[in-house]
Amino acid sequence: MNATRYEKPTIAIKRFRWVFMAIAVIFTYYVLQLFQYQIVNGADYVAQAEDNRTDIISDPTERGMIFDRNGIVLARNTPSYNVTITPAQLPDGEDNPGDRYRILRELADTINMPLSAGNYNEETARGFTPCATDFGIREIVEIASTNWPYQPTRIRCNIPRDMAMVVREKAMDWPGVAVEVESIREYPTGIETAEVVGFLGPVPEVLLDYYTELGFVSGRDKVGYAGIENSMQDVLGGRNGRRVVEVAVDGQVIRNLEEPIPPVPGSNIYLTIDVRLQEAARTALRSNFDYWNYRAGRILSESGAVIAMNPKTGEILAMVNYPSYENNRMSRFIPGYYYNQLSIDEAKPLLNKAISSELPPGSVYKLVSALGVLNEGVVTPEQTIEDPGTIYLVQSFYAHDAGSLKEYVCWTADEGGHGPVDFLHAIAWSCNVYWYKVGGGFHDEVPGNGLGILRMDEYARALGYGQLTGIELPGEVDGLVPSPNWKRFNIGENWATGDTYLAAVGQGFVLATPLQVVNSISTIANGGKHMQVTMINKIVEADGTVSKQLEPKVLWDITKDPMIHTIDGNQILDETKTVQPWIVELAKRGMEMVTQIGGTAYAEYKEYDGFVGGKTGTAEYCDDFALSLRLCGEGINTWPAHAWFVGYEPADDPEIAVVAFVYNGREGSTFSAPIVAKVLDTWKQLKEIDAAKNILPAGN
Amino acid sequence: MNTKDIWKRFDIPLFAAVLLLCIFGVALISSAIAGNPTLAQHPQRQATFMVVGLVVLFAVAAFDYHVWLTLTKPFYIITAIFLVFVFVSGQSSFGAQRWLQVGLLVVQPAELAKLVIIMSLAEFLSKHLTQINNWGIIGRSFALTLGIVLWILLQPNLSTSIVILVIWALMVWICGLKAKQILIATGILVAFAGISYATDFPYLADYQKGRIENFFNRPTDEEARYGDTYNVDQALISIGSGGWFGQGYGQGSQVQLRFLKIRHNDFIFSVLANEFGYVGTVLILGLLVFVIVRCFIVAKNAPDAYGALLAYGFAVLIAFQTIVNVGVNLRLLPVTGLTLPFISYGGSSIVSMLMGIGLVQNVRMRTDDRKQLG
Known about the structure:
- The complex is a heterodimer of chains A (700) and B (374).
- Chain A is of the alpha+beta class and 700 residues long.
- Chain A folds into three domains: 15-55; 87-175, no CATH class; 275-691, DD-peptidase/beta-lactamase superfamily (Beta-lactamase).
- Chain A contains 24 helices and 25 strands.
- In chain A, strands 2, 3, 4, 5, 10, 18 and 19 form a seven-stranded mixed beta sheet that branches. Chain A has a five-stranded antiparallel beta sheet with strand order 12-11-25-24-23, with helices on both faces.
- Chain A starts with 15 loop residues before the first helix and ends in a 5-residue tail after the last helix.
- Residues 1-5 of chain A have low confidence and may be disordered.
- Chain B is mainly alpha-helical and 374 residues long.
- Chain B has a two-stranded antiparallel sheet with strand order 1-2.
- In chain B, α2 runs antiparallel to α13 (268-301).
- The chains are: A alpha+beta (700), B mainly alpha (374).
């Protein structure tokens, strides 16, 4: 080789220093960085890697069913098939537009959906709701791939089973397309039982933590929003299964990391209501509205409630709130327009008036006064009180207040009143003047202050007023048993004598729910035994075990449990007493006379075949609704009134008590008593039908 | 010098280190398959290319590098033609194309272009060493580089273009470029960067802008974690979760469950970190540094300017690619497509790397022992 070819190198050898220095600095820095990542913060990244590979799968459980007392299905689950697309799994739109649109086009043909439809812009895209959209497949995929490319988005919901099977088969060749089976709540009795059964909705934002803790999956699982669905959520809901698994990046499950917990299905609930009676009660209420509104030639009323219960057991046999809503319309999702429509309706269909409305009970409350005046010895049963039709009572606000005279009238004022009235007739005729006088005192006829508000309140509470019944439904309110202290705290005024007079007839400040009203009369009808009101007959677990069976529970017996505090002036003493049984019996006699000749409901019951006890109530009121219609005014018969009637049968051994409440129904006897009669009649027929069924040999 | 003497000076530690890195690369690629059927053939192919590369290495080392010097021009022209061809066929298929189908082989000419550029610049600069501060010479050397880089830039393949431009700059610098020239060149570069920034990088493709944007302005939202920054985030998790000794070969959860993407290529360093931990990364970095430094030493001791520039240019190439690749894995640099020398999957890459080592060995073998010690 020619040595001269190797000339002396003249590149800048000294500059290699810089090269070696740079390499030393950079790689030292890298090694330190690696130490930082792998050792110092290693645990942090290990946690992230664990998070990557660990997935918690929630296996959905099955919600329990709801039945009526005879096993009629009120709520069940039914599978619904939805087509979904996960945009990230579709063939790439940029690399492979042909393939992507072939899939969408074929899918469109298969599920009979437009490939492209709807008015697509930023605004409408924001308002996109899966299952309720006018968009075509392309628009939905566009929205989904911009916002949540890795989540399956519902393209079309509730497709027929056959179509779902076809899509599922073809989806083998359609990456990203899938069929999702969703469990949908179905209410076969729909609007007939909506106020009792309620409906479901998505896990609410405010309760997200609570439900997440219980294993619910937001966006998938639904929870009760109203009725039994809501109050018995814990029993019906069951528990989702839980699997901690190792997953690959594409979601493929590799193995279980922990022992899987299988889902626990919810329990089935049998209610105490009888759907047939429920339907009869609703029909009675509705046809009554139709009748009176047609006769009046205008809408007098279209809102009310009916409750039927067994006084001996406290079971609710029917509970109707009118108007109500169709809960099947909420089964898939709660449609905004429908919910708005329900919310702005003045008749408040979403409010269960049977338990959530506080109303003046009117004359039904006279039974409170009735027990009180006899048990406290204010009057004797035989003692007559004069009813001249109109009386003037002193309205005074404190002990030595000279006060002013105020006019109080009986509903028979125009005919000159009832004349002399004794205890039984005071109930049967619903004589206001009698109850004013004995309730608040009247000159020499009823000396002193009569029963007085404090003593009256004791009897009200003994009958269940002013407290929750504890029925298994959400949204129950407790009404109001007013007292002087209550008025001072809440209105800032002293208790006036006139307030006592009004309270004695269930007016003024007294408020109660229809359930409390029927429950109070049931207590008397049941001889003083106040039963725990309930809607749950039994709870049956998924494996058939009966985990709870209704056992009627006596909360108290007013004739045995000393409930009534002794009142000394304005003092409530610790000393207590019972209500004497003969007084309860006498109150029942009075209510039996209500449906007899001369009684306030005689006209409605004279042709009724059966022994019915009851009480009418016409409760004057004035609320926003009445004000808006200019119904409120001074003097009798000009104020608007709610119509009440509570009836029970057979009067001597009651098996059923029914209350009918008609909002703005004017008169209890004419508006509400016929409704109760129809419900009672249906009950008897149903009993006969059921008895006949039991005689038939099994299998027929 | 006879042939026997020449092979005595063959740098065995350098060769051993390179061989170790290549074998380790094949092992890591095997692990990186992680059940992906499209990657299944990769380790075997990489091993095949490694063997081909080793043959090339010895072939290149066997003939005096001055023989190769004479072939520089034809190499340059052939490479340029290849690149033009790739560019044109890329144009017609509406997208970036970096490969060329040659029979059954898929060749990435840009990998070979790096070596051709090093050879060409070494030839040109060694001839004009004394005039290195002459703007004409600087300009001509740049034009020589541009003749190749232009086509790569148009592919578009920004990262390889940058590698080549860096090689050019550092080769001119080592020839003894004066501070004045360096300052002026830097000034031009800064001005260019400024104008680019102001005009929103008109010469960059959208995805390239996106990568740079994501690096300097890290998106923090959830969507980005599944989109733009997913790969780098997962790489860092893979590295961090390796700990001291790693999760074990074939056991890395990030690798085997495929959370880490481009595992066999851009992010193979993260595979290493995930499965072999800090000990593994430091060892492999140590081996790479050993190879790089060894090449620089060969350059420093080379018997002539041409040999020195050859070895130096190649040392710069592996150093720069290693620094950039590891930097990307450590989220210190924006995402590029640069491979980790000797380890990342890629036939053209491993063959050209081993060819480069052949050139370095060639220079080493033609260097006096006295020089070696000096």
